[in-house]
Amino acid sequence: MYMILGIVLCYEKRAKSLVQWTFVVSFPMFFGTFIEFLQTLIPYRSGDLWDALINAIGTMTGIIIYTFFVIKHIKSNL
Fold it and tell me: How far apart, in Å, are the Cα atoms of 53 and each of 7, 31, 47, 48, 58?
């Protein structure tokens, strides 16, 4: 799910500045960590730091996949 979120944010923002890239990278990671924290407040649920890490890895995988395909598309159009 976070891989898809990373791809969608990259596509939607088409980040060109450092501020935009910071948002694209940090928002899903913050969101995943926040969701894990909220789970600790719900009875019979538990938050897990490993889940937050996997969410971040999924986000970065999506960003890398998107970047790879954009660069490949740009090179093929030259």
Answer: 18, 12, 12, 9, 9
Quick one: how many helices (H) and strands (E) in the chain?
Answer: 3, 0
- b/e 14-29 (16+ beta carbons within 10 angstroms → b): ebeeeeeeeebbeebb
> What is the tally of structural domains in the chain?
1
Q: How would you classify residue 44: left for phi > 0, otherwise alpha for psi between -120 and 50, otherwise beta?
A: left
pLDDT digits (tens, 9 = 90+) for 23-53: 888 888 899 899 989 998 988 888 888 998 9
Q: Please, are residues 58 and 6 in contact by the beta-carbon 8 Å criterion?
A: yes
Range of the domain at 25: 2-76
Query: What value does the mean pLDDT of the chain take?
Result: 86
